[in-house]
């Protein structure tokens, strides 16, 4: 690429140079090929499931889409709940680290939050089912007793705590470090002059953040939330270990019949699946891939546009 | 001056400094926080003692922090006025958010440590699960499998990732470079289970075997997750190398590829190593893809190319999900596996930070 410079002052083309630059290009293209291969092979393996007689699928649903429907709903619902819990907490932590904590300890606190990201998801699953679920069960009972009239807490309470709300709490803990890390970076990029101007006008720290930091970081916060959402959508082990699944579409948070998620369903059923069931599971995986791809792409486009605009980086 | 303020709570008559009047002293928030925690811990302790249940420390700390938020707001409103009170309220909320995130971390580390130490013994690290029903047995086969699969994934990912990073920083211009940057970013968001499904779909078509399970497939799935991380971190590090170094090298007549190999990469090698270590730490705990493509077994398997291969995360999941009639030994092994996994990940993180701190070139800050 670089060797096609202007003809008169042409540098000597060395073979080693050519080999090296070509190998880097090949590596880069390999990544694009791999991503395309993911899509191609998932589609290739999904087609049999879409064409097959739906009665052969697990639970013999009326069509493939009736099989996917509750799973897709559960995936989005659990991820949305997780984001709802994680988003305000993450913004709070990011502000704490970037603008409230003393300078000297701020970075250390950032490491502590990053520790959460280092814990493997299977350990979170084990913790969720053995520690969190028993801990929140009495609280769910209280919720259902007192707020049973509210649709989200309708019906009888789950006796084990294996509900979608528990899953959402664990997922929230897992995406907090992601949203925090990204929004922290964005808050730190706020022009110091804006902040100082606000403070010089007599603003309190809260007013300074409202006037200078948040408007500057709005796009970045949105994309951080979307990246967290993408992570929550694809998280597998927590759902597989904590949730007691049922093929229903239900918004109830504390009941014993909870919609499973695509990823959790694959992890639970894949090891024993055979024949057309495997293709059906891969087809659900393809849908998950498509959902996360769209969400991540939109988030990245927002981040990149903002990067060009702010001149940061 | 102090006498004319509307709020009677500000009493000290001797206070004359107009800059500090009407403000809470610095020790007040901390005292309030400590007091709220103490009150709630006592209340919860009394409840626990009367109903004979365990003391729920996290709940007490959380509710104590909420109480502190309210108390601080009221105090600040009475003493300092509504603007300062709002500011203090948000400050306390922000601190609350931080504490809220720490609670699960501490609880998780505490439970894993207390439950995992029971089986953290020699047998766990020197035996497999072959012919083990009930007590005994270990995770040697899983640890071996994890090391082999992750090692292979690293062997695939590091060259590809590093070369791509070199391309993006040193060569890449125009559409291709932009496409690679964008899709590498998108790739970081691929769900791990989709990577596993891809490896399965690919190899089952390739070998025409619909029940295919083998270790190398797991390595491929993991490298799909690892490559973007390696690319991003190496790219950042290569960008940090000052251009003057490259120009000096070109001026001496050194070819570009030698400049990259002998000047650019050695300068940034500490940062690249840190990034690679963190990438390994990220994928070594992945469960879902290995569950699909590497499968689970109870025996040792040193061959990446054939047969099912256990890995430590799948071991933890399997011990939890498929216990025998006597559940406890299985759960104990699961917790010990979790503890081992956390120790490995923490060690990798620590090594990465040490490398970054010790070997990084001292750039002017």
TrEMBL record, chain A:
Residues 72-299 form the ABC transmembrane type-1 domain. GO terms for cellular component: plasma membrane. GO terms for biological process: phosphate ion transport. Keywords: Cell membrane, Membrane, Phosphate transport, Transmembrane, Transmembrane helix, Transport. It is found in: Cell membrane. Belongs to the binding-protein-dependent transport system permease family. CysTW subfamily. One of its GO terms (molecular function) is phosphate transmembrane transporter activity. This is Phosphate transport system permease protein. It is a multi-pass membrane protein. The lineage of its organism: Bacteria, Bacillati, Actinomycetota, Actinomycetes, Micrococcales. InterPro entries: MetI-like, MetI-like_sf, Phosphate_PstC, Phosphate_Transport_Permease. Pfam families: BPD_transp_1. Its main location: membrane. The chain crosses the membrane at residues 19-44, 64-97, 109-127, 139-157, 164-188, 208-230, 237-258, 278-299. Part of the binding-protein-dependent transport system for phosphate; probably responsible for the translocation of the substrate across the membrane. It comes from the Bacteria.
UniProtKB/TrEMBL annotation, chain B:
GO terms for cellular component: plasma membrane. It comes from the Bacteria. Keywords: Cell membrane, Membrane, Phosphate transport, Transmembrane, Transmembrane helix, Transport. InterPro entries: MetI-like (IPR000515), MetI-like_sf (IPR035906), Phosphate_PstA (IPR005672), Phosphate_transprt_permease (IPR051408). Coiled coil: none annotated. Its main location: membrane. It is a multi-pass membrane protein. It is found in: Cell membrane. The chain crosses the membrane at residues 27-47, 59-79, 91-118, 138-168, 180-206, 212-231, 334-356. SUPFAM superfamilies: MetI-like. Residues 143-352 form the ABC transmembrane type-1 domain. It holds the Pfam family BPD_transp_1. GO terms for biological process: phosphate ion transmembrane transport. One of its GO terms (molecular function) is phosphate transmembrane transporter activity. Belongs to the binding-protein-dependent transport system permease family. CysTW subfamily. NCBIfam families: 3a0107s02c (TIGR00974). Part of the binding-protein-dependent transport system for phosphate; probably responsible for the translocation of the substrate across the membrane. This is Phosphate transport system permease protein PstA. It comes from Glaciihabitans tibetensis. The lineage of its organism: Bacteria, Bacillati, Actinomycetota, Actinomycetes, Micrococcales.
